């Protein structure tokens, strides 16, 4: 895919995401408007009680007046309760909108991260410098320091020297170089064990798996440009 095509695809994806978020907000806003419009009027009960007062102004006994006062108090309580319900509904709708927008944003981030990881897996690690210091027992990968064991340093050094010569080493050949024996006298599993220990020492699984490539039926090699390798 060309750069222009990738940029265009990214812009289309961004527009779809923004459109989806706007659509979510619009739908929830429309639902909120419909809900609030169809809620009963908070003063409806009070209005009915007022009509009772006006229509029955001849109610003068103590019991009748007390009844009207109770109805008026009930209307006020109903009004206050309905107002609190409106506020609760508003808060819940805002919370639902925030959750949906956050879910869409996290989904987009997850998709982007998955694509990025796929690109890394296809291309390998982009290494600008690899410095192997035997004396310090350290490896500097893009200026990040990794403390390795002596055995891991030796294994990585063998792989680095092979990479500079454009060679792929089998497990037996790695074991032979390190032990000083002929590769035919060495076990393939011994070299594979050294590679496993090197990856374990590096710690980060993604870094170790992508840095040290296993080529089927051939062997192992460093998946980096040989020009960035330095050994001291």
TrEMBL record:
The yes or no answer to whether the keyword Endoplasmic reticulum is present is: no
| Keywords, ordered alphabetically | Membrane, Transmembrane, Transmembrane helix
Which sequence ranges are marked TM in the entry? 12-37, 87-113
Q: Which residues form a coiled coil?
A: none
InterPro entries noted in UniProt: Sig_transdc_resp-reg_C-effctor, WH-like_DNA-bd_sf
A GO molecular function assigned to this protein is: DNA binding
Keyword set includes Transmembrane: yes
Example GO BP: regulation of DNA-templated transcription
Specify the protein name: OmpR/PhoB-type domain-containing protein
């Amino acid at each position: 895919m060309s750069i222009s095509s990738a940029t265009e695809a990214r812009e289309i994806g961004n527009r779809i995401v923004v459109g989806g978020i706007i659509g979510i907000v619009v739908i929830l806003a429309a639902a909120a408007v419909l809900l609030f419009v169809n809620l009963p009027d908070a003063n409806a009960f009070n209005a009915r009680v007022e009509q009772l007062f006006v229509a029955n102004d001849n109610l003068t006994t103590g019991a009748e007046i007390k009844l009207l006062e109770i109805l008026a108090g009930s209307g006020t309580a109903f009004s206050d309760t309905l107002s609190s319900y409106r506020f609760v509904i508003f808060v819940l709708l805002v919370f639902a909108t925030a959750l949906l927008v956050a879910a869409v944003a996290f989904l987009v981030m997850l998709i982007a991260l998955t694509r990025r990881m796929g690109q890394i897996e296809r291309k390998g690690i982009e290494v600008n410098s690899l410095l192997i210091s035997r004396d310090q027992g350290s490896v500097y990968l893009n200026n990040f320091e990794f403390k390795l064991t002596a055995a891991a340093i030796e294994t990585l050094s063998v792989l680095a020297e092979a990479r500079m010569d454009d060679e792929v080493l089998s497990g037996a050949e790695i074991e032979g170089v390190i032990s000083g024996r002929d590769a035919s006298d060495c076990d393939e599993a011994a070299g594979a064990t050294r590679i496993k220990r090197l990856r374990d020492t590096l710690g980060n699984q993604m870094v170790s798996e992508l840095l040290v490539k296993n080529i089927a039926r051939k062997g192992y090699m460093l998946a980096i440009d040989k020009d960035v390798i330095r050994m001291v």
